[in-house]
């Protein structure tokens, strides 16, 4: 009986020890799990805070970048070009610009955007044509990267950035405005200069004057002033004719010498030639329309074949 009691006592003691060990193990596991959960929660909170801060910084950067650029509506740009209240500068490539431009706008390309050779000419253009305190409205393809690139170049060239505006939506938005883009250059706000047929013929003997005939090929072949260059501007509103004029101007004419321009009657074709040559970098004060064109009697008498 005593042995049984002792045995029961020993068993009871052993059971209590095991129970205590299990209880301790459970408490340790629970504590470990709690610590892990707290750690995960802390890490999650830190990650969330970091993402929030990053998002706020990104939004702040976008807001700051947007604040650097000022915008003007397409309609206001068209009006400004017409009344001369601002310089409207188109920075697209010639191939896009010649398909449709704002009347009386200026042109100096910054496309392709990765072409660093365009930076210096734009800076020089700004010094010559834009450095007068007037606002500048920039037209690019969509009112984004091209205008932003041009803004940077103009600012680096010394133009006050507060004067520089982007035409919102660029040429894409302008195309949606009735009559905003055109290929007609004959109504430009240019002070057209004229030379009489008599004086033009007398200048044929001078090496200081260049002669340009903008009549069609067949008419030119039938009779023209000796030594004159020729480009067909009969269809003066077409991009193809204006591109041919631009190519001849940049490749065959000297911008430092006066150019006397002969057309059918001294009107649309000659005016278109002058507008295109202005885009090619010629000073319009050096460009002259032969008055009355090929209708002038002195001019006709001097024609050769």
UniProtKB/TrEMBL annotation:
Keywords for the protein's UniProt record, in alphabetical order: Signal
Cleavable signal peptide: 1-20
Domain Rhodanese: 82-183, 205-301
Residue spans of biased composition, Acidic residues class: 43-65
Keyword rRNA-binding appears in the UniProt entry: no
Region of interest (Disordered), ranges: 29-67
Record-linked Pfam families: Rhodanese
Classification via Gene3D superfamilies: Rhodanese-like domain
Composition-biased stretches (Low complexity): 29-42
InterPro entries in the cross-refs: GlpE_sulfurtransferase, Rhodanese-like_dom, Rhodanese-like_dom_sf
Superkingdom as given in the UniProt entry: Bacteria
PANTHER family to which the protein is assigned, alphabetical: FAD-DEPENDENT OXIDOREDUCTASE, PYRIDINE NUCLEOTIDE-DISULPHIDE OXIDOREDUCTASE
Name listed for the protein in its UniProt record: Rhodanese-like domain-containing protein
Protein's organism: Candidatus Copromonas faecavium (nom. illeg.)
């Amino acid at each position: 009986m005593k042995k049984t009691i002792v045995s029961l006592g020993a068993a009871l003691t052993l059971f209590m020890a095991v129970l205590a060990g299990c209880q301790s193990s459970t408490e340790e596991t629970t504590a470990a799990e709690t610590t892990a959960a707290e750690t995960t929660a802390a890490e999650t909170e830190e990650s969330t805070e970091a993402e929030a801060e990053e998002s706020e910084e990104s939004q702040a950067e976008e807001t700051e970048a947007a604040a650097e650029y000022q915008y003007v509506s397409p309609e206001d740009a068209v009006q400004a070009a017409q009344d001369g209240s601002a310089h409207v500068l188109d920075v697209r490539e010639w191939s896009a610009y010649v398909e449709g431009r704002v009347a009386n706008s200026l042109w100096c390309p910054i496309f392709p955007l990765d072409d660093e050779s365009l930076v210096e000419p734009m800076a020089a253009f700004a010094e010559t044509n834009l450095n007068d305190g007037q606002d500048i409205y920039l037209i690019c393809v969509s009112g984004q990267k091209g205008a932003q690139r041009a803004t940077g170049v103009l600012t680096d060239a010394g133009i006050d950035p507060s004067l520089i505006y982007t035409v919102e939506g660029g040429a894409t938005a302008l195309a949606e405005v009735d009559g905003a883009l055109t290929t007609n250059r004959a109504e430009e706000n240019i002070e057209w200069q004229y030379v009489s047929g008599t004086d033009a013929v007398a200048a044929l003997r001078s090496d200081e004057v260049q002669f340009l005939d903008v009549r069609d090929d067949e008419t030119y072949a039938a009779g023209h002033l000796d030594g004159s260059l020729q480009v067909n501007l009969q269809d003066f509103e077409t991009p193809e004719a204006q591109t041919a004029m631009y190519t001849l101007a940049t490749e065959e004419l000297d911008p430092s010498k006066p150019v006397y321009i002969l057309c059918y009657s001294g009107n649309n074709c000659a005016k278109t030639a002058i507008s295109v040559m202005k885009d090619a970098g010629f000073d319009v004060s050096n460009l002259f329309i032969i008055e009355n064109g090929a209708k002038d009697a002195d001019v006709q008498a001097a024609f050769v074949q």
